[in-house]
Design a protein that fits this description.
Shape: elongated
Strand content: 5-15%
Radius of gyration: 33 Å
Number of strands: 4
Distance between the termini: 39 Å
Number of helices: 13
Number of domains: 3
Helix content: 40-55%
């Protein structure tokens, strides 16, 4: 038996239970499936089968011309990829919050800070120029706000001080870029889906399960699939999680796993075959 025998191994186990057969498992640790030499000898798993040390190879080996001539293969069983079933995240009301979501909170704080600084700068310039009407700080902040949303044309024409005009022109140009970025972010916001997935990779799911934010749901009749995922994942923490009863919910079938995800009060993630999940999703 090699890594991740998957459905082949599950079929053999079911046959052994139904026919009351006993068997002994031999793990192949070197050479993998094996190679064929010119004298018709094999190494690895095929070598064990050729020499009579094994009778059945449990696993999804590729059929090649040389292997097909030397060994009797069962009918090929197509590999089915795995998917993770979770509850649909709660959709947020983007109609009421779309203006706030166009920029992050740090950017909004920066914009507000720029309003205040522009108001201070304008007041300082006006105080240094005699003959102009002195203004309060509140009116200066409102002035900086109007420069952004009204382009500051009126204030530019009514100010004869060169330094004031330079400040107004600078804020005016910056407002053009700000409005352009704001509009682009709004377009991207509406184009993107309202629901954001809580995780994108298996490693991210493992971290959520370890932190207690998610429960991992596994089918006890599909251990081969979990073994394949465990063999190919680069995260060693996955092996620790699937053996921790506090982090895993075990079910007896695919239907029970789906019901568990739907009825579980918290967040749950069910690892299952993609094809069957798509079929059940289309039926519902």
């Amino acid at each position: 038996m090699l890594y991740g025998p998957g459905i082949v191994w599950e079929i053999l186990c079911d046959m052994a239970n139904r026919l009351n057969l006993t068997y002994e498992i031999e793990n192949v640790e070197v050479e993998g499936w094996g190679k064929r030499f010119e004298n018709d000898t094999w190494t690895g798993a095929f070598g064990c089968l050729k020499e009579g040390k094994a009778e059945i190879l449990a696993g999804g080996s590729m059929m090649t011309p040389n292997r097909n001539k030397a060994f009797d293969f069962s009918d090929p069983i197509g590999y089915q990829s795995s998917s993770i079933l979770i509850k649909v995240p709660i959709r947020e009301n983007f109609v009421a919050q779309m203006l706030a979501y166009a920029f992050g909170w740090k950017i909004w704080l920066s914009i507000i800070g720029c309003f205040v600084l522009a108001g201070f700068a304008y007041r300082f310039i006006q105080n240094q120029n005699f003959g102009f009407t002195r203004t309060t700080q509140t009116s200066n902040i409102l002035l900086a706000h109007s420069l952004v949303f009204f382009r500051g044309k009126k204030f530019y024409l009514t100010n004869h001080s060169l330094s004031s005009r330079i400040l107004i022109a600078t804020v005016w140009i910056c407002s053009l870029f700000l409005m352009a970025f704001f509009g682009a972010n709004l377009v991207a916001l509406f184009a993107h889906g309202a629901s954001k997935l809580p995780f994108e990779t298996l490693e991210e799911l493992v971290r959520l399960v370890k932190s207690g934010e998610y429960k991992l749901v596994l089918d006890i009749k599909s251990t081969g699939r979990i073994e394949m995922i465990e063999a190919f994942t680069d995260d060693p923490e996955f092996s620790k999680i699937i053996t921790d009863k506090n982090l895993v919910i075990l079910v007896d079938s695919l239907e029970d796993g789906i019901k568990t995800v739907q009825q579980y009060e918290g967040n749950a993630a069910f690892i299952a075959p993609s094809g069957r999940l798509r079929v059940l999703a289309s039926l519902e």
